[in-house]
Design goal:
Layout: H1 2-24, H2 32-57, H3 63-88
Helix pairs in contact: 1-2, 1-3, 2-3
């Protein structure tokens, strides 16, 4: 049940980042609005799942750290990938 909640939360985070990408990065969207949404959602889900499984595998038992990482890193990862897409197409 936790993994399903995580995936749904990361899809929502990715959708929010995809929406905000136009405001954060001024200028043309090289892959379009749908591309921003897809890139942000896929990146957020991948990074969120990696955080969810890798942090405990590293032996870190701090639950608060796990939830902070799962909350922040997918959003930052999605922003980074969107920035890289914009830089690679300019």
């Amino acid at each position: 049940m936790d993994i399903l909640f995580l995936i749904v939360a990361m899809v929502i985070v990715g959708a929010i980042i995809g929406y905000l990408a136009g405001s954060i990065f001024k200028g043309e969207r090289p892959k379009g609005v749908q591309g921003d949404y897809i890139i942000a959602i896929v990146t957020a889900v991948i990074v969120g799942l990696l955080d969810w499984f890798v942090i405990p595998a590293m032996g870190i038992d701090n639950v608060m750290l796990k939830y902070v990482a799962v909350a922040l890193e997918p959003a930052l990862g999605a922003l980074l990938v969107l920035w890289l897409v914009r830089r690679s197409n300019s």
